[in-house]
Specification:
Layout: E1 14-24, E2 29-41, E3 45-50, E4 54-59, E5 63-66, E6 75-80, E7 85-93, E8 101-104, E9 116-119, E10 139-148, E11 153-156, E12 159-161, E13 164-172, E14 178-181, E15 184-187, E16 192-196, H1 201-207, H2 211-222, E17 230-234, E18 243-244, E19 249-252, H3 265-272, E20 280-282, H4 288-307, H5 309-328, H6 352-369, H7 371-384, E21 388-390, H8 392-402, H9 409-414, H10 428-441, H11 453-462, H12 468-475, H13 483-495, H14 499-511, H15 515-525, H16 529-542, H17 548-558
Parallel strand pairs: 1-10, 16-17, 17-19, 20-21
Antiparallel strand pairs: 1-2, 2-7, 3-6, 4-7, 5-6, 8-9, 9-14, 10-13, 11-14, 12-13, 15-16, 18-19
Helix pairs in contact: 2-3, 2-4, 3-4, 4-5, 4-6, 5-6, 5-11, 6-7, 10-11, 11-13, 13-14, 13-15, 14-16, 15-17
The chain binds zinc ion (ZN).
Zinc ion binds near residues 245, 269, 292 and 295.
Length: about 550
């Protein structure tokens, strides 16, 4: 039972989707048809999820009605079936405000000449552009045909042949994805490549050069990559996430193009989802940690294998501190792995807890049973549940039949906080950074010439209330091309009311839409009355350029006290 879907797959389960869509950039809508195939049934009704869709007609059915719209779930589309029926075709169009579509004007792209469209279906936004059973427990194969009104190229996350797309493996609805824009392609190896706007595509090719090595690294540890090609699509900067693991075609933010491969852990993360998430999927959004905790764990293993133990230790240590910081701001009920989401939008459960606490649990299990045995377990887990959606209880049952442990699994999963036995990460390099930070605080000059992005981030985070004018004079942080370091610098500038930093805030918040950067910066601004005024003034201008998901998050912060 999925509380975030109107559909009733226990009665009729859709198996295959044929999608035929026209992309109208002028009206910011999609029009077309979704043909849904299922086993012949005598059940009288098929219920689909929709949100803000205009349903024109339903073919091969005895009738239909659209129910009342729920603010979180959208509206059920109830289709009356004829006896023995095995398919229906829904003719529909989307709304310009569809929560899963972002339509960008040319000014919001890198090239500034052509518009751009991309979808974001996770968690429950597929229903805003396709009428379907929008639950991760329902897996379907699909085919798509997509035409654009202005000749721009469209891509779907699937096998591609011209404007025809096909997904042979059954996938959950949140992995159905489409993008259209001025895109060029560069090959990265035998089975991988990158799409991006022409002005970004070569930078993206250099940044992602290790992708094939990453795929081989996971295959050696956890079994074959089963999706054919692995390509990346670099989106415009308004993309609300770091990445989205759409199968065969990861969507990624351009804010990871740092020029030195220092932020490619994101590629490792999205690639890891080809096993944890896309192959073995959370059955409901409360089980989200099965997707994300496993993926952060595998991401770390890729980084360790391709870039070395030091880099892994630094990234894990940074993440561990971020988890502590975020948990402090969460109610106890949200510090558990199995998330209580009744009456809530599943996007609200998307904190660091399922990601980092989940990964910490797996590292703790690995430490206890030993790496070899744990890797063998994971490999068999992916084989056993391949192309299936499972619950936390199913994972626990399987784990307990394969391995025994003294790790208190129920406490990790159902109780708030981090159990004392956690396998905490430790970085030698960061110990050196901490020494450097205390010397710098004492007025000494320090050598930072060989520092990585991770060392910089740790340095900035351990300096307590530093003299920002001196920091800027020595290190020119406002001129960094690295979005992670810049956003850290901007947060510190807000805390210290440091005008030269604050002056950059406007252009950053008006050009970048990644929630990871927006949320802390707006939250920091809202701590003081002057900051709150600045936040509202910037947000008024920036909001139209943000994705609906980011708008929803920042609305909740900026308008919370109104
Ligand atoms: Zn993820």
């Amino acid at each position: 039972m999925d509380i975030h879907s109107w559909s009733r797959p226990d009665e009729v389960q859709v198996r295959h989707l044929e999608l035929d869509l026209d992309v109208h950039f002028d009206r910011k809508i999609l029009t077309g048809a979704a043909t849904l195939h299922f086993d012949p049934t005598s059940h009288p009704e098929l219920v689909l999820d929709t949100r803000d869709l205009e349903i024109h007609s339903v073919e091969n059915a005895a009738g239909f009605e659209v129910g009342a719209r729920d603010p979180i779930l959208g509206a059920p589309l109830r289709i009356r079936l004829t006896p023995g029926c095995s398919w229906v075709r829904v003719n529909y169009s989307t709304s310009p405000n569809a929560s899963g579509l972002q339509w960008l004007d040319p000014a919001q792209t890198a090239g500034k000449r052509m518009p751009f469209l991309y979808t974001q279906s996770q968690a429950i936004h597929a229903r805003s552009w396709i009428p379907l059973q929008d639950s991760p427990a329902v897996r379907i194969t699909f085919e798509g045909r997509v035409r654009t009104s202005n000749g721009l190229s469209a891509v779907m996350a699937a096998e591609r042949a011209g404007n025809h797309f096909r997904m042979r493996h059954p996938v959950p609805s949140y992995l159905i994805a489409l993008a259209a824009g001025d895109l060029e392609f560069r090959s990265l190896g035998e089975r991988c490549g990158v799409f991006a706007e022409p002005s970004l595509v070569d930078a993206a090719r250099r940044e992602f050069a290790d992708t094939e090595a990453m795929i081989r690294a996971v295959e050696e540890m956890f079994g074959p990559y089963r999706w054919g090609r692995y390509d990346l699509l670099v989106l415009p900067p308004s993309f609300p996430f770091g990445g989205m693991e759409n199968p065969c075609l990861t969507f990624a933010t351009p804010t990871i193009l740092a020029g030195d491969k220092s932020l490619v852990a994101l590629v490792a993360h999205e690639l890891a989802h080809s096993w944890s998430g896309n192959l073995v999927t959370n059955a409901t959004w409360s089980d989200f940690w099965l997707n994300e905790g496993f993926t952060v764990y595998i991401e770390g293993r890729i980084i360790e294998k391709v870039y070395g133990q030091d880099r892994y230790a630094m990234e894990a240590t940074l993440a561990r501190r971020e988890l502590d910081r975020e948990m402090e701001s969460l109610p106890e009920s949200d510090r558990v792995l199995y998330l209580p989401l009744a009456g809530r939008d599943p996007d609200d459960g998307c904190t660091l807890v399922p990601y980092q606490k989940g990964a910490l649990l797996l590292r703790t299990l690995e430490r206890e049973v030993g790496r070899d045995r744990f890797d063998a377990f994971l490999r068999s887990y992916f084989d056993h549940f391949a192309f299936r959606s499972i619950s936390t209880a199913e994972f626990l049952n399987y784990f307990r039949t394969e391995l025994s442990t003294t790790v208190p699994l129920d406490e990790w999963i159902y109780s708030p906080g981090i159990p004392a036995s956690a396998a905490e990460p430790y970085s030698d390099a960061f110990t050196c950074v901490e020494t450097a930070a205390s010397r710098w605080r004492n007025g000494e000059t320090i050598d930072t010439s060989r520092w990585s992005t991770q060392e910089w981030l740790h340095f900035l985070r351990v300096l307590e209330k530093p003299d920002l004018a001196r920091l800027e004079a020595e290190f020119h942080l406002s001129r960094t091309g690295n979005a992670e370091i810049l956003s850290q610098w901007l947060a510190m500038s807000i805390q210290a009311q440091f005008e030269p930093g604050l002056a950059l805030l406007d252009s950053f918040l008006c050009s970048v839409g990644r929630r990871k950067f927006l949320k802390p910066l707006y939250s920091e601004l809202l701590k003081t009355p002057e900051g709150a005024e600045r936040a509202r003034s910037i947000y008024r201008r920036a909001r139209p350029g943000y994705h609906p998901i980011a708008q929803h998050t920042i609305d909740g912060l900026v308008f919370a006290d109104r």
